[in-house]
Structure formats: structure tokens, C-alpha cells
Amino acid sequence: xxxxxxxxxxxxxxRVERVAHGGHxxxxxEGRVLFVRHAIPGEVVDVVITGEGAKGRYLRADAVAVVExxxxxxxxxxxxSGAGKCGGCDWQHVSLEAQRRMKSDxxxxxxxxxxxxxxxxxxxLEESVRxxxxxxxxxxxxxxxxxxxxxxxxxxxxxxxxxSHRVQxxxxxxxxxxxxxxxxxxxxxxxxxxxxxxxxxxxxxRAVVIDPPGSVPSGAMPGLPExxxxxxxxxxxxxREFAGGREWRVQADGFWQVHPGAADVLVDAVREALAPRPGxxxxxxYSGVGLFAGCLAADLGPEGRVDxxxxxxxxxxxxxxxxxDLPQVRIHAAPVESWLxxxxxxxxxxxxxxxxxxxxxxxxxxxxxxxxRVMALTPRAVAYVACDPASLGRDIGHMAGAGWTVxxxxxxxxxxxxxxxxxxxxxLPPR
Length: 431
Ligand SMILES: C[S@@+](CC[C@H](N)C(=O)[O-])C[C@H]1O[C@@H](n2cnc3c(N)ncnc32)[C@H](O)[C@@H]1O
Hints:
Layout: E1 11-15, E2 19-20, E3 24-29, E4 32-37, E5 44-52, E6 59-68, H1 96-113, E7 119-120, E8 123-124, H2 125-128, E9 131-132, E10 146-151, E11 157-160, E12 167-169, H3 178-181, E13 195-200, E14 206-211, E15 238-243, E16 246-251, H4 262-274, E17 281-285, H5 291-300, E18 305-310, H6 313-322, E19 329-333, H7 336-345, E20 356-359, H8 367-376, E21 381-386, H9 389-401, E22 405-412, E23 422-428
Helix pairs in contact: 1-9, 4-5, 7-8, 8-9
Bound molecules: S-adenosylmethionine.
InterPro entries: MeTrfase_TrmA_AS, MeTrfase_TrmA_CS, NA-bd_OB-fold, SAM-dependent_MTases_sf, TRAM_dom, U5_MeTrfase_fam
Domain TRAM: 5-65
GO molecular function, one term: rRNA (uridine-C5-)-methyltransferase activity
């Protein structure tokens, strides 16, 4: 070890150890931990230090040359992928099979490290938890039905570089569907806008959303194919989706799963985990346009009851319209935290107990306050849908502290070529 700690711009040659959360792999150099992008466990790579992590506890680095490649290394399908380039994909240099192995490793590690979970029903996580491919996946490409492009100072579209505000201008992205690509937005100039979002729905609707609204003057608006709506300027503000055997209305810039196979696979996984029974009472928290509420209402039947809670007024409006044929569903436009608190304070007038719960929070998870109130409703099962395994691990750890156990965990590769994954976990109360 030298007397000088490595700093930004320094070069080194390191052996890459395990994969870590966030698309990095761990390596060590001069006594410091490195979080290395663009590498694969087992490889020897030349790295350049790119910065320091929180409180100086670790360094960040990019692999810039491969000395000993892994058998899992492949040529990236996109020319924009790699160190210093587009920050959209973490793992284009990794075979799809190995990407899923690495995601499985990350999921297990977060469950153990943050959730304290070593096994499920006595089966070690190595055997009981893995990340699955989803139906309709085409070699991990052409799956993005919703894409948010950044706009550079010249009005060109692209994606931000890793940990940077700089935009990597792109012509086309192999992750987007043909329907997104053929809007040709990347060939046009969007001077004035910060972001341009393109949506191509499962029922063939296409929309382009400009942020901030009105930032591109009408005279400078690029021409777009006739069918593409521009909410606020041309056509309606929502698109139609199809999932779970039902049609859904979703605001063009509202939440809907991005991978074409996602909504169905998640509904099936949640249904399998909860095994809803006729007459039961379901609480669907963070319910969006009502996907889980609407699909599971059929299992509960007319004697059942669903309370769906979502804070976006527009999403609740879509949910009411989507579920108008299901009188057993009540939509509540409120933050989950305050709705649960108000319901508890209302005593017998509020919701005092439920049978089953779907929790599908945003990236930072549900958190202790919401989980405590959910557990107080004494459900027989909770299905937790998570897009961040770290938040899931933390929230499972909190419930485990109250005696809850994990009944099953399934990971889904809904974001191929990136390090992201979706998980459905079944949580069961103490007996
Ligand atoms: C991951 S999405 C899930 C939506 C829906 N379950 C689905 O699958 O389509 C999370 C949803 O939670 C909503 N949300 C985020 N924070 C919230 C909060 N504190 N209270 C209520 N809703 C919230 C968002 O608007 C978004 O619709």
C-alpha cells in the first residue's frame, strides 16, 4: 500500500469480486473498497477512479479495459453503452442469463443483509429466490414502452450519463419498442424542453409528453406521426392499456409498468401469493389506476370488498373509470400514511381489519410507519411488490422484527440490460 490514498483520475488494475446493489461490482485497491461499473465478478480489469462515495467510505470506478474477461462478457448491443457514455443501461456487456444471476445475487444479499432473512420455509435463499425472465421478452431488447428522454442545450434527445447531468445524445435505443422508436422523436429538435417522454401502449396508443408543458413554442414544435397525441396540445391526455383481461385508462405521464409483460406477470404473482378468497377484504395501497384492485376484485366476488389508496388525483380518476363495473371497490385519493392514520383514528367507522394487503410503494419503500399500521389491521397475508430490493429488505426487516415471516419471494427481470428488477414477496403474520 502506498502512503497516498487513490483519488479521482487514478488508474489501477483490480480483480472484481461480487456484484453489489446499484449496478456495481465490488473490488479492492490500496486498502479501499471500489464500486466498479462496467465489470463482471471474477474479471481482472483496468479501472479509472471516478469519485468518492458517501462519507468517503468507498471509491467509485469505471472499468475501462478488460485484462481477464469473464465467460459472461458479451459485446454490448448498443454503441452508446460503456464507460463515460449513456447511463441508461448498466449491464449490456453481460449475457442475459448472467444478468439474471447477478440480479438474483443482489436480491438475496439485500434480503439477508437488510432483512435478516437467510432462508424461506427452511430453504436457503440460494435455492428459494431467483430472478425470472418474463413472457414476451425478446432477448432483453425492445421492451421499453415508456421512455423519458433528457434534452441537451441544442434541443437533441438522449439519456443522462452515469452520475452526471450531461446528456448522451442518441439516435435510437435498442431497449425501446418499435412503436416508440417509430415516433422518430430522437431525429427532431426539442429546444426549450427539459424532458420529452414517449409512451406507446399495449393497445396501440402513442403519446409524447413535453416537460415543462408549453416549453417548446407552438411554432417550433417538431412534426410527429399523425396518430401521436401531445397532451395539452393535440388529442387526449391518456392512453389505453390491456392487462389482466381488462382495459385500463392511464394518463400519458402517469404510472404504468414499462415492460409489456410486466402488468400481467405481477398480477399473476400477487394472486398466487395471496390466494384471494370470495368475500375477503383487500387493501390495495399505492394503487395507481387500480391494476391490483381491479384484477383481484374478481377473485373476491361481489361479497368481497376492496379499498384502494393512491395520492394522485388523476390516477384515482382513471381508477374510478377503470373499475366502475366493480361496486365492491372503493378508491381513496389520499397519501397512504394519512389515509391509514385517519382510518385508525375513526375507530369502528374506519377500516379496522382486512384479510389481505397489496403494498406497491415507490422506490423508497413503504417505511416503518405504514408497515406498523398495516400490521395492526391483522391481515392474513401481505403481497409486497418492490422495485428496489434494498427498500424491500429494510421493510421486511421491520416486519420480521414484529414476528412476521417471509412466505415466498419471486424476482422478475422487467428491466433487462439494467441492474433493476421487480420483486413480489409474500409476508405472513406471526401465528
Ligand atoms: C409503483 S406505483 C404502483 C401503481 C399500481 N399499483 C400499479 O401497479 O400500476 C406506486 C404508486 O404509488 C403512488 N404513491 C406514491 N407515494 C404515495 C403515497 N405516499 N401515498 C399514496 N400513493 C402514493 C404513485 O402515484 C404511484 O401511482
